[in-house]
Amino acid sequence: MPIQSLLLDAAEEHFARRGVLATRLADIRHEAGVSVGAVYHHFPNKEVLYLQVWLRALADYQDGFRAALSECADARSGVEGAVVRHLQWVSGNPQRATILAAPRPPGVDERADSTNAAFFRDVTHWWRVHEHYGTVRRFDFDVLYALWLGPAQEYSRQWLAGAMTTDPTAVAPELARAAWNSLRIQE
Hints:
Elements: H1 3-18, H2 25-32, H3 36-42, H4 46-70, H5 75-92, H6 94-101, H7 110-132, H8 141-160, H9 168-183
């Protein structure tokens, strides 16, 4: 496995478990089994390493969300499928989910902003197509996001913090139905 991947994997585990401030580069280096020079060759400091871990988690999450939308046959399967995929991702990737649930890293650069902009543009486009055909309600994106993923996000945060003990995948069907019921055109 390439050294950069070893470092990212070790850093992800430490940042998720201990937080950024309590994690030392020496801990990451030791777990990855690499030299001090190897760490600094790939990452000039802990902030850059954390940013790369955060961006990797973000890309992984967004790829799964996009896939859920692309696999859907209609608006309902997309809305519900995205909620289910979100909760499956959190359950299957608790370290990455913990990193994304934490505040954005300082110095988030244009790559994160452009990654998010492209993601939100894709999701908004998907939504507007279904809105145009009269299957879902019209919302500004911030309200849409809150209604679509707000309950799933909150459940995820509580589960990651240990306050909820039921795995997110077990509550996914109910939260997915609730999202659909709040977003669909009422007949």
